[in-house]
């Protein structure tokens, strides 16, 4: 295509930006691709930015200078976030989810690609300015959530294991106490999985007292890693958490096994400042 119409140019440029979030694209690359002047490209970017702003779907960041360009920063607005989480809360209140001991069945939620895509966008909004190097989760239920966040943040995923295998090589292992059961368990991470000094976002599916999250934080200290955030899909009300600072998307306020009743609400994410 030698000469692009503005309408075609806008569609393709939007696609290019959304396809590589956080990646800086030089204006000269756009100008060369569309055979257009930089001034025309700048006008196009202004139109795209106006639409993104109106729809609260993220923003464009422009960097000036010879090596400058533009990059897309993903986002999701308050209204859409609340709609996603209200639907999740409704699904969580299904009494058939109640398991012995007051636990909840959530495997169907963790296998829902549409829901995971939306939750990944929310976490990208919350943690986009945390300068994350890697996302860490613990097997097994946290894995799809970690990859959902990783897709939108464009960061690698590292998985903490309960058991070790010979294919992992040498590992670092810590003992931790489960906050829900009080039982001792081990968490292990291969030495080659994480560079020392990495900035880490911890993602998990469920937090009761926070024993697993606390264990992961202690394990990451062995790698001299800095935990810059902890995000959970669901947390529950307990007298005291073992983790002080974390972001929850939803909160289970009551599970009544006898009456088959579950109460939920949107979590503490709107108290974290990302949506202010």
TrEMBL record:
Pfam families: Pribosyltran (PF00156), PuR_N (PF09182). InterPro entries: PRTase-like, PRTase_dom, Pur/Pyrimidine_PRTase, PuR_N, PurR_Bsub, WH-like_DNA-bd_sf, WH_DNA-bd_sf. GO terms for molecular function: DNA binding. The keyword Ion transport does not apply. Keywords: DNA-binding, Transcription, Transcription regulation. Residues 117-248 form the Phosphoribosyltransferase domain. Residues 5-74 form the Bacterial purine repressor N-terminal domain. The keyword Amino-acid biosynthesis does not apply. GO terms for biological process: negative regulation of DNA-templated transcription; negative regulation of purine nucleobase metabolic process. Homodimer. Belongs to the purine/pyrimidine phosphoribosyltransferase family. PurR subfamily. This is Pur operon repressor. It comes from Shimazuella alba. The gene is purR.
């Amino acid at each position: 295509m030698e000469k692009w119409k503005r309408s075609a140019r806008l569609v393709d440029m939007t696609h290019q930006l959304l396809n590589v979030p956080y990646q800086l694209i030089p204006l000269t690359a756009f100008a060369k691709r569309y055979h257009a002047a930089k001034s025309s490209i700048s006008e196009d970017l202004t139109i795209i930015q106006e639409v993104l702003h109106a729809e609260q779907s993220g923003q464009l960041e422009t960097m000036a200078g010879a090596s400058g360009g533009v990059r897309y920063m993903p986002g999701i607005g308050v209204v859409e976030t609340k709609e996603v989480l209200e639907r999740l809360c409704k699904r969580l209140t299904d009494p058939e989810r109640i398991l012995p001991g007051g636990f909840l069945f959530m495997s169907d939620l963790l296998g829902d690609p549409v829901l995971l895509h939306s939750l990944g966008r929310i976490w990208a909004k919350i943690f986009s300015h945390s300068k994350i190097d890697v996302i860490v989760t613990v097997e097994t239920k946290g894995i799809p959530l970690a990859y959902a966040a990783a897709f939108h943040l464009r960061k690698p995923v590292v998985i903490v294991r309960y058991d070790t295998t010979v294919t992992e090589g040498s590992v670092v292992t810590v003992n931790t106490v489960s906050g829900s059961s009080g039982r001792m368990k081990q968490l292990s991470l291969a030495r080659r999985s994480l560079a020392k000094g990495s900035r880490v976002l911890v993602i998990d599916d469920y937090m009761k007292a926070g024993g697993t999250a606390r264990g992961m934080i202690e394990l990451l200290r062995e790698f001299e890693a800095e935990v810059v955030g902890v995000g959970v899909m669901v947390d529950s009300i307990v007298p005291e958490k073992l983790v002080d600072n974390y972001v929850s998307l939803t909160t289970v306020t009551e599970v009544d096994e006898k009456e088959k009743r579950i109460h939920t609400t949107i979590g503490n994410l709107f108290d974290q400042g990302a949506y202010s």
